[in-house]
Structure prediction request, 143 residues.
Amino acid sequence: MIPLLTPRERQVYEAVIAQVSDCLGFAASDIEGPARTPKLVAARRVAIRLLRERGLTFVAIGKALGNRHHSSVKFLAESDDAAGLVKIYMTKIVDVEPATGIDEDNETPREARARVARELAAGLRCPACHLLRPCDHEQMRAA
Prediction:
């Protein structure tokens, strides 16, 4: 059981961890565990950033991710990505709907990644941020 999380937060947490572990090829227990290999730390940072985007606190994320102190979680979320792994990993993540943990078309993560790749190839998505066009930074650049 994940301490300090409401049922909604627990559902969001489990959906994000499952999505990150599926998309990046790590076991959920590895993401939550103590290992500090660069690739695993980058995957953990991706999970932390996604959880923060969905409204979880640093304290709740830290408790759920192996009882880490909230300052360690905050450091991971806000530190620079020297190796560039977080940026690479973020492009591999297909966004999940926060309440249910599945995307709106009920496609599997593999199908969603294939759809995003097709949309990128067709020019429907921005190659920099992978958002559907027109994305925010393209609009700002044009203005």
Remarks:
- The chain has eight helices and no strands.
